[in-house]
Amino acid sequence: MKKLFSRLLISSLMLVSFVSVSAIETPSVIADINLDEEVQASDLGVNEPSLLPGHPFYFIKDWTRNIKSIVTFDPVKKASLEAEFANEKLIELKKMAELNMSEESLGKAINSYRERIQKTEELTAKIEQKSSEDEKVKDFSEQFTQQQILHDKILLKLEQQVPENVFEKIKEARDEHIDRFQNTLLNIEEVKDIPEKLINGLNNIEGSDFKAIKDIELLNRLKEKLPEEITSDMENRMNEKIENFKERIENLPSEKQEGFQEYISNVTGNKETYLNIIDNIGGRVLSENLKKIINNVREKSLEQIKAGEKMNIDSDKLQEEFNNNENLLEKVKTLILEKGLDKNSMPEIFQFIEDAELDLDKAKEYLEEGNYSDAFGEIKSSFSLSKNTENLIKRMAGYDVDLELKDTDDQTTIKCNDTTNIPVCGTDGKTYRNICEAQKENVKIAYRGECEKQEMTCAKINEQVNRNPLVGSTNQTCCAGLTEFRITRSYSICKNDDSEFECTTDKDCPLSRSADETSSCVDSKCVIPLGSSSVSCIQIISPAVNSDGICKEFSSPCEVPEGWTRVDQCDSKAIQLKNTAKQEEIKLQIQAREEAIKAQEMKSDNNENNSTGTF
Question: Which of 96, 224, 219, 220 is nearest to 169 (CA)?
């Protein structure tokens, strides 16, 4: 059943891709995708096949290959010859899929290809010299690396083309290929040289202006297979490639930049990895135009992730992912506090973590509603932002950190210096000298800084109220008679009413925003974005209670559900206010009833008097 769901998922994404290609894409985008995905026989240094498996005389082709291998004794030439046979086998498989040959024939061709890549790995294990020691090994390594990158492209494309029953075999072949690719590199290269070899191989392959996205996807898959000792080097090179890609698209004409959204929506590959790459780009300094494009691309990618997951949901696994993500987010926030990172000097880091929290809050609501596809998308979005926060800390703050998904009771995940003197307030209401001391007591951090020793004074008109625990306490409220208006994800401002938010054009909305937010004038009100989408009414924290007396804060009046009553604040006073309102309503009803009875009595008396007067 899971295989069927997986196949249906791929088919649905293919359908979405086909529709958008025929209805949305411009010819230049189609050309870009074809350039980055299509591989010809000549690209692998072999000829188009004249005979395919299943032909009565195909055995002669295999017989000739075996003879060539037998009479070749040099270990490097023998491995190179076997790699050539693997190239031929893959091109044959590609041709067979295009001709819609039988599932049995495709299955045999896949197995034959897997045998050849296994044999290639085994033969390279017999080569005694490394690439750095022998020129022949170096030449073979360079050619082999470039060709195996092309192999991955073909196998990924085949996943979208083969019949239902063959899909899983192709997927297994692709997974095996990536393992044997990295094992072969380890046989002929010094470990430290592998990252550079991969980058050179990718750079030597022709591609579109957006090709780097697919390059980084492959590097990400390989990184998980390669030895840990070069993980840091791989990540640095991937970051460098992302930075170069960012610079490249910054310099493209605007119409070409806009094509990036169509490209990312229709190119094959792992959408979750693409989301992570997009977030990595979003954490860098971008022009306003590119920033808008990246935000649009992110939103589209998230929609595709949600749409694809509707067909394959495991609620238990989803809840587990949510818990892991919540754990990761907590550790990223802890790391920010531990390192004493400042929002003013590193706003990008704080922006990412705030967005990650918003997405996780949305995911929680979707899970409670049973809306698992949207919950999945928000969880993946939050995870991507959290991981990229880690990446930003590495790049911008210079810290070498690795936040692994471990149990929340694990006290060894984050290493910190006991001599650090950055006080934090724990959720138990106690102040700790630094985060380590709080961790020793298994206490979570409420906010940065010492716990409040006395009741915090209320914020007066036009004063800002902090809503970010990474900056400090979030307990302050507006003084009586003032309303809290959210102006950024981190801060609110206290106002008498919303008159200052009235506008005619966008220029009439001067309130400060976070770095990536712009205010718009909609329906004569300043619209303040929430995440990547805007709301059509002003974003004001709006407490409300339902008929059961449950009070909840909503991010704007538009989000207050039908049947809920808005109140000043969510506490006992709010409930009391609601009860008082109810009592007033009952009182008015009783008063109206009494007045009606009294009126009726007066009418009866008048009728009686009139009757008496006639006798």
Answer: 96
Residue 480, pLDDT score? 87
CA dist., res. 327 & res. 333, Å (int): 10
Q: Confirm if 80 and 68 have CB atoms less than 8 A apart.
A: no
Can you tell me the distance from the alpha carbon of 556 to that of 333, in angstroms, rounded to the nearest whole number?
Answer: 26
- Determine the Cα–Cα distance for residues 374 and 212; give it in Å rounded to an integer: 29
Residues of the chain falling short of pLDDT 70: 1-25, 308-313, 338-340, 342, 344-345, 394-422, 435-436, 454-455, 470-471, 486-490, 497-501, 506-542, 554-559, 566, 568-615
Dihedral sign, Cα of residue 301, residue 306, residue 310, residue 311: positive
Q: Is 370 exposed, middle or buried (0-12, 13-18, 19+ CB in 10 A)?
A: exposed
Report the distance separating Cα 121 and Cα 21, nearest Å.
Answer: 39
pLDDT at 308: 66
Task: Classify 88 as helix, strand or coil.
Answer: helix
Which amino acid is present at 135?
A: E
Structural domains of the chain sorted by starting position, each given as residue range(s) with its CATH number in brackets: 56-190 (1.20.120), 464-566 (no CATH)
- Specify the pTM: 0.62
- Which residues lie below 8 Å from residue 544, measured CB to CB, with a gap of 6+? 551, 552, 554, 560, 561, 564, 565, 566, 567
Asked if 528 and 492 touch (Cβ cutoff 8 Å), the reply is no
